[in-house]
């Protein structure tokens, strides 16, 4: 079901940066969130990143997970059935990616984390997160910036079977 601020399509949406989103659940059914390193305000988000030319979403998911959190010790649970897109605020869209994209179009992949806290290393070459925590998935939407809330809500709806009793 589409939500406000979220457009669902069967293919990546033209004019939007193709990305993967990573929904990483731990053994206690909590989801990984990272606090953005490049923002002063407290902005938490799920790991995500662009799909490189010639790369599949599956390959991009594992690569981005390793780049952003320092590990890809995870098992695939489910891939989203649709691409979900959101618009960036106009001022941010003009600065990001040299204005080439209006926002992002994302294929979401759910994984079960099979490592330990010691495997997580946020200090990569280009750190995206200053901190991380594991939260109840139902808290996710409230923790993120408003322009991502529609997508995050739709991802929760689709993946809820992975943690709900």
Automatic annotation (TrEMBL):
GO biological process: nucleoside phosphate metabolic process; ribose phosphate metabolic process
Cofactor: a divalent metal cation; Mn(2+)
UniProt KW keywords: Hydrolase
Keyword hit for Transmembrane: no
CDD domains: NUDIX_Ap4A_hydrolase_plant_like
EC number: 3.6.1.-
Keyword Zinc included in the entry's annotation: no
Nudix hydrolase domain residues: 15-157
Single GO molecular function: guanosine-3',5'-bis(diphosphate) 3'-diphosphatase activity
Motif Nudix box, residue numbers: 49-70
Function, as annotated: Accelerates the degradation of transcripts by removing pyrophosphate from the 5'-end of triphosphorylated RNA, leading to a more labile monophosphorylated state that can stimulate subsequent ribonuclease cleavage.
The family this protein is said to belong to: Belongs to the Nudix hydrolase family. RppH subfamily.
Record's protein name: RNA pyrophosphohydrolase
Gene name per UniProt: rppH
């Amino acid at each position: 079901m589409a939500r406000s601020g979220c457009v669902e399509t069967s293919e990546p949406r033209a004019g939007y940066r193709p990305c993967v989103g990573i929904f990483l659940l731990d053994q206690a059914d909590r989801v990984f969130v990272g606090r953005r390193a490049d923002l002063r305000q407290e902005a938490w988000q799920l790991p995500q990143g662009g799909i490189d030319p010639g790369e599949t979403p599956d390959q991009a998911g594992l690569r981005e997970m390793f780049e952003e959190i320092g590990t890809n010790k995870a098992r695939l649970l489910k891939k989203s059935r649709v691409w979900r897109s959101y618009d960036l605020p106009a001022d941010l869209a003009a600065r990001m990616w040299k204005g080439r994209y209006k926002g992002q179009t994302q294929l979401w992949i759910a994984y079960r984390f099979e490592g330990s806290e010691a495997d997580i290393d946020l200090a990569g070459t280009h750190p995206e997160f200053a901190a991380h925590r594991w939260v109840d998935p139902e808290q996710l939407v409230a923790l993120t910036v408003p322009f991502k809330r529609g997508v995050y809500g739709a991802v929760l709806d689709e993946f809820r079977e992975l943690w709900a009793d």
